[in-house]
Amino acid sequence: MSPQSYAKQREIVIQWLNTVLPDLRLPTEASDEELRACLLDGTVLCRILNRLSPSSPNEESSENSSVSQSENVKRFLATMDELGIPRFEVSDLEKGSMKTVVYCLLSLKLHFISSGEELSTLSTITKAESIDDDGSSPGSLQQFFGEEMRNAFPGLKLQCAMHNQVISEPSPAVLKHVGHKFHEVFQLKQACYADLPVTKILEMMESNSLESAPTQAILHVVYGILDETAETMNSEIPHHVACLFRKAVQEMGRRLSTQADHLRTQNNLYRAREEKYRSKIKELEALVSVSRKETKHVTVQPQQIRSRRKKNVSWFSASTLLKCFHPTSQTANSKLEEEQKVEKQEMMKLVKENEKNILELAAMRQELDIVGMVHKFCSLEMEAEAKAAIAILQLKIKELECLLADSNNKVKELEESFESKCQSWTMKEKIYQSFIDFQFEAMQKLRSSSEAIKQEVLETQKRYSFEFNHLESKLKAVTDAAGNYHEVLKENHKLFSELQDLKGNIRVYCRIRPFLPGQTEKLSTIENISENGQLVIANPSKPGKDGQRSFKFNKVFGPDATQGEVFADIQPFVKSVVDGYNVCIFAYGQTGSGKTYTMTGPTGATEEEWGVNYLALNHLFKVSQDRKSNMVYEVAVQMVEIYNEQVRDLLSSDVGITTISQPNGLAVPEACMHPVISTSDVLDLMDIGFKNRAVSATALNARSSRSHSIVTVHVRGKNVKTGTVLYGNLHLIDLAGSERVDRSEVTGHRLREAQHINKSLSSLGDVIFALAKKSPHVPYRNSKLTQVLQSALGGQAKTIMLVQLNPDATSFSESMSTLKFAERVSGVELGAAQSSKEEKDVRELLEQMASLKDKIAEKDEEIRRLKSLRDLKPRIPQQHQL
Ligand SMILES: Nc1ncnc2c1ncn2[C@@H]1O[C@H](COP(=O)(O)OP(=O)(O)OP(=O)(O)O)[C@@H](O)[C@H]1O
Predict the structure, then answer these.
(1) d(CA 874, CA 878)
(2) Which residues form a coiled coil (predicted)?
(3) pLDDT band at residue 402, thresholds of 50, 70 and 90?
(4) CA distances from 472 to 465, 486, 530 (A)
């Protein structure tokens, strides 16, 4: 027993003593010596017995100061012996340890306990005694369990003590060992048993922690699982929780059966005690009867004595007489009196003894009655409570059994499903195994085939690399060939171009303008445009192949072609101007087909939208700039228009021009010649020129220009080293619209305009076709236009015709006549163009040729003369004849 627990027990004993004997007022923390001093004379001990059992015979002695100290203590100890309470020795009270005294008093308290509270306290003490050896804090633990049991079984006041004995509660050591597990379980109030890991539950079950757990804890677990099951209606209890549940219920069953056994034992104990008391009562009754008999005897005795006395009186009288007469009879009388006296005393003594026995018997009866009553009461209460508890527990057991059965069913179901799942998994495993085997085999095959393929790939790679090298060399050859081909193609192109130059063909480029933003009917006459210059036109009123007509030109530009793309094809001709050639570019087409757009560009054109006029002059400046180390160029511009067969200078305020020069001279010498040195000069001049141009509206084109505009660029180049001078000129002509009169819906003034335009254009055609036929008479003089362009069309110039087309289906017939005219023009050979230098060179060559011819003629004459001389001298040998 640890000093602390002993001190606690002593404290409880002191408290109890103070409760039983309030006047004692012993301090709770009183030491062993203070307690000893209090108990030493035995008075307090006897008073306790008196209080607890007022009928106790100790009352007298305790209150009686005459009774000695040792007597009191001995009586107390005798009572203890009688009650079967472990006692102490007198010497223990006098000196040495007070533990046995304290323990004895505690046992006494337990013996006389009559209230639940006291019982629980006593049970606490008793338990403290039993757990003391583990050195834990027994008092607090036991109080905790006492409280716990009260909570677990409300109303079982007397059973508290029994519970503590009956239900084998865990020892603190065990609790210390396993308690944490239940602590963990208690922590599950907010959590879920199903969430507990299986290992934890197994640990709890395997370590016998359930057996050593407090009932409250087990009930807690059981209720917890039940609550959880109730909350999660129809849900299955997890297998491990079901196991724990079964174990907990089994443990509860075990404890209940232990409790029932204990109740039976307790009952037997009480019965034995009752028997003991009954036998004691019988003994006492026998004693009483004996004493009664004795009393009877005693009462009989005086009668006998009286009778005897009577006899004696007679005898006395006789004896007195004898005494009187005989002295020895006196002696006998006194003896008798003495005897009587002694008998009287004995009788008194017997009466007293009898009274005492009666009192004792009454006390014992009372005691027996009390004990019997208490026992009966206790038994009844215990039985009732046990019955109630058993009923509750049986109910609970039934519930638990039901739940257990459910759980077992569920477990069975789970086991079955587990079994079936196991089987299916085994099946699956087998399938997977076979699948894996199959896969493995396939993999092996694949591996071997992969090896073979690898080998094959390596070989193929080798072959491929060889072939690749071979191919590379071949490709190189092909690339070279392709390069050569391009070279050859270029060469061919050049040759073709040269051939064209030599033949002097008019180059015809066709350009189709796009549909204008305002044009709603977008039915196009253009069927197809080929790269090689082929254009297919479809008649909208004649669908199919019959309505189609194909034309071939040098190039056809589609609606998407840009100004730059168009100029790119013209550029080499423009360049040839600085080499001393005459170049004539004219745009031909019906009104609104885009002639002005191509030649000049749209109103307020950006640099990208510049027309041929600007781009050509720009290019001329660029080339002249590039050649400035060798050549010095002078560029001048004339700008005239032919309106109603009248030539007008567009760069001067003078109205008319009457003189038109002969071929090889200036076409319009009267027109102002404006030297220009930069593109901006040209732009300014053109602005002036176009402002002066006659412009009037027609039904077909709101800005239709009704005159032919001719921009002539004169280039004079002088070689700075040789001093050679070259002349070239470039005619940029924007013809008036070529539409037929009836379509223009014009009358009067406008009709005359249209007639003039048509006349000049047909004159142009006549000139071109006369040239094509190599006719001796070329009708240049038929119109002002042909007169002005005589030098440009006469065979010394490179001529480019830009045929403009409106793709709209409504313009089909106009487009057809334009294209037919252009087709005829494209076949015209004007003869090889010549530069001003070449002309001179040819003349010189002709002169040389003529002189050479003269020399050859001279030589021929000489040969002839020599031949005739040889004929005259036949003896000359054969070799000398040559
Ligand atoms: N390639 C093109 N891209 C965009 N718009 C174009 C193109 N060609 C012509 N146009 C537009 O078509 C309209 C008519 O063009 P343009 O005035 O150049 O015709 P035209 O043949 O000169 O007419 P006219 O004979 O009456 O002088 C203009 O609004 C012009 O901007």
Answers:
(1) 9
(2) 383-417, 835-872
(3) confident
(4) 10, 20, 34
- Say whether 549 sits in a helix, a strand or coil: strand
Cα 749 to averaged position of ligand 1 atoms, centre (Å): 24
Query: What ipTM score was computed for the predicted complex, to two decimals?
Result: 0.98
The CATH H-level (homologous superfamily) assignment of domain 562-808 is Kinesin motor domain (3.40.850.10)
Helix (H, G, I), strand (E, B), or coil: what is residue 875? coil
CA–CA dist 224, 186 (Å, integer): 9
Q: How far apart are CA 321 and CA 318, in angstroms?
A: 5
- Taking the centre of ligand 1 as the mean of its atom positions, its distance from the CA of residue 563, in whole angstroms, is 12
Q: Is 96 annotated as a binding residue?
A: no
Which has the higher per-residue pLDDT, 579 or 800?
A: 800
Whether 701 is in the pocket of ligand 1, judged by its Cβ within 6 Å, is: yes
Q: What is the mean pLDDT of residues 593-618?
A: 90
Exposure class string for 428-462: b at 16+ Cβ within 10 A, else e: eeeeeeeeeeeeeeeeeeeeeeeeeeeeeeeeeee
Mutate to test the pocket of ligand 1, among 509, 511, 565, 596 (most ligand atoms within 8 A of CB): 596
pTM for the model = 0.45
What are the structure tokens assigned to 66, written together?
Answer: 């005459």
Looking at per-residue pLDDT, the higher value among 318 and 571 belongs to 571
What is the distance in angstroms between the CA of the first residue and the CA of the last residue of the chain? 168
- Beta strands 656-657 and 646-649 are antiparallel
Tens digit of pLDDT for each residue in 671-700? 788 899 888 888 888 888 877 775 544 545
* 589 among annotated binding-site residues: yes
Residue 818 near ligand 1, beta carbon < 6 Å: no
